[in-house]
């Protein structure tokens, strides 16, 4: 774990938190070094390495809260940061509640650090990606994208005696195969670089690309649709961002506001958050040091819960669910380790179950902010959209725009695959979303 600063982070954290200059003091550190290897048209064109650290200090003076941050671990910089947090707390308005932060906690044993990722050189990563280039070369398919790895650590120390530390690694391949006007994409994220089947992902994207040539137009309308995991991950991510956080839930903008205990989707939908599940990018605690645990969000179609941090929980007299972001993040807590449970169908048989409709492998983008209260979203398909007839792909389709109430669409889910795949969830290296294939009987394409 070369380059990590565990002892220094905890030492400085204990010094700052133990200064007794406020009612409570929290020290939160995230130290991260990343390396990105970019490629275009099956040629490497850029290698980037970035090392950065962020340190947040949050203090309370009665019901007043102050937050400040710095990028330097030097003692003088941290002291100035603490002074700034105290100054902010003295001059800000009182909150109508008293912030309650966690005391000492016990954490589950979660492995997020893999030497295979931390020690991989650019030459080794280039060799892995170069092998992937060969999967499309015989057919003239070219690959563009990036392989990014990071090595980092999180430390949380507070004046109530809490002390937490966790090192991690992450690796993410994102690749688009292209030939003329045809394309296919592949993506995967893992703590362990060796768990990413780079050749297999690039081979699959090349095959999708070759099938996507000479696309046809399809008229707007409501179609039966089979969404592959890459597409489903975008929808679940936006559901989380617009509806699964406590701040939106209590201010009335969430689609779950005043609906806990009600059926909001069909019974085949089960979505939860679990930072301890090794099937995603696991981490034992949040950025307040609160332990991670499983949080049910939609249970067999029924709205079951939302994510709280200490701030939102204190404001309503509740308890944190272990979803504290960096202090000062005005958007509030969100689930970062999302899972949509698989079903009982084999992915290989879902085209036959679809029968006639549209197969969507991925979305070019999704905008979930049209009307969050109604879970109304829009977006465009890309990198593999196909017309299906008789349970088989008939032809490729040009990109299509959808506009849909996603919760209502999820009421119409007919089948869910056993197989799931993992994708990044947000910008934090340990955020992930694991989802299956889903077959929806009725999905609205507007153009």
Number of β-strand runs: 19
Shape: globular
Distance linking N and C termini: 51 Å
Largest sheet: number of strands, sense, barrel closure: 10 strands, mixed
As an assembly, this protein is single chain
Mean pLDDT: 96
Strand content: 35-45%
Order of helices and strands: HEEEHHHEEEHEHHEEEHEHEEEEEEHEE
Number of helices: 10
Task: Please give the share of residues in helix.
Answer: 10-25%
Q: How much is the radius of gyration in Å?
A: 23 Å
| Structural class estimated from helices and strands | alpha+beta
* Unreliable stretches covering 5 or more consecutive residues: none
Count of structural domains: 2
Descriptive labels:
alpha+beta; PmbA/TldD fold; ten-stranded mixed β-sheet; six-stranded antiparallel β-sheet; globular
Please describe what this structure looks like:
The chain has 447 residues and is an alpha+beta fold. The protein folds into 2 domains: 6-211, PmbA/TldD fold, CATH 3.30.2290.10; 221-445, no CATH class. 22% of the residues lie in helices and 37% in strands. The chain is built from 10 helices and 19 strands. The protein has helices at 6-17, 75-91, 115-118, 122-136, 198-211, 229-243, 246-251, 310-315, 350-354, 406-411; strands spanning 24-40, 43-61, 64-70, 142-158, 163-179, 182-190, 221-227, 271-273, 295-299, 302-303, 337-340, 357-360, 363-371, 376-381, 385-389, 392-396, 401-405, 413-424, 432-445. The strands form 3 sheets. Strands 7, 8, 9, 10, 11, 12, 15, 16, 18 and 19 form a 10-stranded mixed sheet that branches. Strands 3-2-1-4-5-6 form a 6-stranded antiparallel sheet. Strands 13-14-17 form a 3-stranded antiparallel sheet. Strand 18 and strand 19 form a beta hairpin. The longest helix is centred in the N-terminal third of the chain and has 17 residues, at 75-91. The model has no long low-confidence stretch (mean pLDDT 96).
């Amino acid at each position: 774990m070369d380059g990590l600063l565990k002892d220094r982070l905890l030492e400085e954290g204990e010094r700052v938190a133990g200064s007794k200059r406020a009612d409570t003091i929290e020290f939160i550190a995230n130290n991260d070094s990343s390396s990105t290897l970019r490629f275009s048209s099956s040629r490497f064109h850029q290698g980037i390495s970035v090392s950065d650290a962020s340190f947040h200090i949050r203090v309370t003076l009665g019901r007043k809260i102050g937050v400040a941050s710095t990028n330097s671990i030097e003692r003088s910089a941290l002291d100035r940061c603490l002074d700034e947090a105290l100054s902010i707390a003295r001059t800000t308005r009182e909150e109508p509640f008293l912030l309650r932060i966690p005391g000492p906690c016990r954490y589950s044993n979660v492995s997020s650090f893999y030497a295979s990722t931390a020690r991989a050189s650019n030459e080794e990563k280039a060799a892995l990606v170069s092998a992937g280039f060969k999967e499309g070369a015989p057919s003239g398919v070219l690959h563009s994208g990036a392989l990014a790895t990071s090595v980092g650590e999180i430390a949380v120390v507070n004046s109530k005696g809490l002390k937490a530390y966790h090192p991690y690694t992450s690796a993410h391949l994102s690749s688009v195969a292209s030939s003329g006007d045809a394309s296919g994409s592949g993506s995967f994220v893992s703590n362990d670089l060796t768990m990413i089947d780079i050749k297999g992902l690039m081979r699959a994207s090349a095959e999708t690309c070759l099938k996507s040539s000479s696309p046809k137009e399809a008229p707007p309308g409501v179609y039966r649709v089979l969404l592959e995991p890459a597409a489903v991950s975008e929808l679940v991510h936006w559901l989380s961002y617009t509806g699964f956080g406590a701040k939106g839930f209590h201010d009335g903008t969430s689609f779950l506001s005043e609906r806990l205990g009600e059926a909001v989707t069909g019974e085949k939908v089960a979505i939860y958050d679990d930072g301890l599940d090794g099937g995603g990018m696991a981490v034992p605690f949040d950025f307040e040091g609160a332990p991670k645990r499983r949080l049910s969000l939609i249970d067999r179609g029924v709205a079951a819960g939302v994510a709280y941090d200490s701030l939102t929980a204190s404001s309503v007299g509740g308890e944190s669910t272990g979803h504290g972001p960096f202090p000062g993040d005005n958007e509030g807590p969100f689930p970062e380790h999302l899972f949509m449970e698989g079903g009982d169908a084999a992915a290989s048989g879902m085209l036959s179950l679809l029968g006639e409709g549209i197969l969507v492998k991925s979305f070019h983008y999704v905008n979930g902010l049209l009307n969050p209260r109604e879970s109304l979203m829009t977006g465009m398909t890309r990198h593999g959209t196909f017309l299906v007839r008789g349970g088989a792909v008939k032809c490729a389709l040009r990109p299509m725009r959808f506009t849909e109430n996603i919760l209502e669409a999820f009421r119409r889910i007919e089948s869910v695959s056993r197989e799931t795949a993992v994708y990044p969830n947000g910008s934090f290296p340990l955020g992930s979303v694991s989802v299956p294939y889903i077959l929806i009987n009725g999905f609205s394409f507007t153009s």
